[in-house]
Design a protein that fits this description.
heterodimer; A: 140 residues; mainly beta; five-stranded antiparallel sheet; three-stranded antiparallel sheet; 8 strands; globular; B: alpha/beta; Peroxisomal Thiolase, Chain A, domain 1; 13 helices; 20% strand
Chain lengths: 140, 378
Amino acid sequence: MTAPWLAAELVPAADRDAAPGTSLRLAASRCSACDRCSFPATGTCTWCGATGSDPERLSDGTAVAATAVLHRTPGAVVEVPYVVALVRFARAGLDVLGRVPGATDPAAVPPGTPLRVVAESLPDGRLHFAFEVGAHVPPQ
Amino acid sequence: MNVLIAGVGLHPFGRFPLAVEELGRAAAIEALADAGVSYPDVDLTVVANVGEGMAKGQRIAERLGATGRPVLSVESACASGAAALLAGRDAIESGRAGIVLCLGVEKAPRGFIAGAGFEPWQEASGVGVTPIYFALQAQELLAATGGSVQDLAAVSVKNHGNGALNPNAMYRSPVTAEEVLRSKMVCPPLNLLMLCAPNEGAAAVVLMSAELARRRGVPQPVAVRAVALATRSPGDWFIPAPSRLSEVRSSPTLTAAAAAYQEARLGPGDLDLVECQDTDAASELIAYADLGLCAAGEEVKLLRSGDTQIGGRIPVNPSGGLLSKGEPLGASGLGQVHELVTQLRGRAGPRQVPGARIGLAHVMGAGHVSAVTILAAA
């Protein structure tokens, strides 16, 4: 029995037993009409409004840009400071925003840095996705 | 052009021990007096506000008098003021109204703006934070233009310098690049003095049909040449979207600017001044290209040329911008209109743009909302 997810719909059902720190895939969708991807997955395409889509999974990306949040923000359960990166998933053609808990400085995540999606245990005990420097490790 | 601005009014931007209704009333009364209009003459009141609750427009407008006339509330994040102008302009163009009062007013809490449309998971996980978006845009801009944090500081220095000449601004002291770069880091590369502060204030605009303005002998009217509002297209990325398409790159400001230039039958080369959404220093630079003041990639070059200073080829944010005025969300767009009208009437005192005849105002906010307004001396 794993901890509850902050937003289970962001993670494919098959990956929801991932342990903190291990690789994970994100659940995106690919529109059957325009072939563009959306994250979070949506039944109605973000871009063209068509209904009908296929699952698309995001696992390995590269950093586009990174910054840090140094001051507490409304509603956040995570402790400051933390690094946030915009990560490019080439096959899906999507850039996704997420935290990089293992980094303390955005300079450690320069553009082009390979990042994989992992499960992270938040301070309130819930699981969420995060990014970690390195390549995807498929679950055993 | 059938719609004119007959009068403008403003309550200074800052922090005040006044209710939102009082802030709004002060700006509205000034605008009505400037236009030579009494409130019972107003056919429609459009109230722009983000943070107040149900029936806010009616509550705020009631302080001006219970005239029984329609009051419309509009909320479009930082573009709320322009949305009010759009609604008011269209009401006159359609013949449904002869005089419209557009009133923007806000009492925004201190600190980061909450409730900018983020999902609960975005906020809880720490990515529902507005300056993250500005910081990442800034990183990409600097990478694409070869600019540096010195250039971001230079935008802040320029706007704070202009704001020192504006009695309605919240921050009225010039700053040096060193002071900007030494100020508290918020989200790298953005320091505190490179970001605008949400605050309080009000701005009001009285719109009138050209025929009515002529009959009433309105002095120094200003023509509304265009008001265009845009939202997200594929390729746009802004608050609160958690992802974007990698390959397409566009902006709702590009969409709004194209529509506004077409409507006004004018181009960027016709402008004498611009008030743009400098939520942060990089956002002003991004707007340079999106509004057509320069080609994409040339934003830093345009800044360094000095052309966007007062006295330059195309002064940007002569009012001091949001960086020195602060941003009362519902009021900021009409605050820009107030500045353009003041400039086009030649009444801006020490921050006057010489010979100003045509001005553009640009707002952009959460929900990928962007609006471009073009005004001309009538």
